[in-house]
Amino acid sequence: MSKICQITGKKAMIGNNVSHSNRKTKRKFNVNLFTKKFYWVEEKTWINLSISAAGLRTINKLGLDAAIKQAQAKGYYKA
After folding, report:
1. How far apart, in Å, are the Cα atoms of 56 and each of 12, 13, 50?
2. b/e per residue, 35-48, with b = 16+ CB within 10 A?
3. CA terminus-to-terminus distance, the chain
4. Looking at residue 1, what is its pLDDT?
5. Which residues are registered as beta bridge partners of 11?
6. Closest-CA residue to 5 (of 28, 27, 36)
7. DSSP code, position 11
8. Per-residue pLDDT reduced to its tens digit, 34-76
9. Which string of DSSP letters, residue by residue, matches 33-62?
10. Which of 61, 50, 42 is CA-nearest to residue 3?
């Protein structure tokens, strides 16, 4: 499974490591991603989501059902 948040759609970014002598080498900025199990009351089922910390805050703010419907509309979550 790829490193993409199923709620916010966040994924790894590419950047540079910059040394003291100002040499630049490519690096990857990964997302703070973890799997979490939620009980979806409207569907009466448990779901496992691969979400970022920002996605977890979104779920706390909007509620699980609204966050999943918003993610489905944007194409991040496929049920």
Report:
1. 17, 20, 10
2. eeebeeeeeeeeee
3. 15
4. 62
5. 4
6. 36
7. B
8. 999 999 999 999 999 999 999 999 999 999 999 999 999 999 9
9. EEEEEEEETTTTEEEEEEEEHHHHHHHHHH
10. 50
Per the structure block, which two tokens stand in for 47? Answer: 């779901």
pTM score, whole prediction: 0.84
The span from the CA of 70 to the CA of 43, in Å, is: 16
Token code pair at residue 6: 């199923």
Burial classification of residue 21, based on how many CB atoms lie within 10 Å of its CB (0-12 exposed, 13-18 middle, 19 or more buried): exposed
Tell me the one-letter amino acid at 12.
A
- Residue 79's pLDDT is 75
Angle at 75 between CA 74 and CA 76, to 5 degrees: 100
Question: What is the distance between the alpha carbons of residues 74 and 70, in angstroms, rounded to a whole number?
Answer: 6
Pair of tokens at residue 73: 């509309």
